[in-house]
Amino acid sequence: MSNGKRIDFLVDELQNDDWIVREDAAELLAEIGDPEAVEPLIKSLDDDDWHVKEAAALSLAIFADSRAVDPLIHLMKDEKASVRYAAALGLASIADERALKVLKKAIEDDNPIVRKVAKLGIDAIEKKE
């Protein structure tokens, strides 16, 4: 693994039967900061539990890796506002123009926090251009 860090245990825990363990693993992968965690975290965006999806999206915001853009865009359709917020935060962190359309739509989200983060993301993308 990169930088000599061992993340294989946490990556394996992303498949644990207990959603709490999966959520914790996603959060710890962000704390470690090893870029090898990006792909496993992207896969966790499809988790059955919203807690895990939210944690994975928030962790991906730390990495700001463009590989996460399309999966995070897809997550913006989630029924759970906290998951949409986490996805919007990830997209704002990456500031990729591919997210502009979905973030502009999110300005009309029912949740005020999602709206606020969407605006931040739009600003970040426009400053980057």
Automatic annotation (TrEMBL):
GO terms for molecular function: oxidoreductase activity. It comes from Methanobacterium spitsbergense. It comes from the Archaea. Gene3D superfamilies: Leucine-rich Repeat Variant (1.25.10.10). Pfam families: HEAT_2 (PF13646), HEAT_PBS (PF03130). PANTHER family: DEOXYHYPUSINE HYDROXYLASE, PBS LYASE HEAT-LIKE PROTEIN. SUPFAM superfamilies: ARM repeat (SSF48371). This is HEAT repeat domain-containing protein.
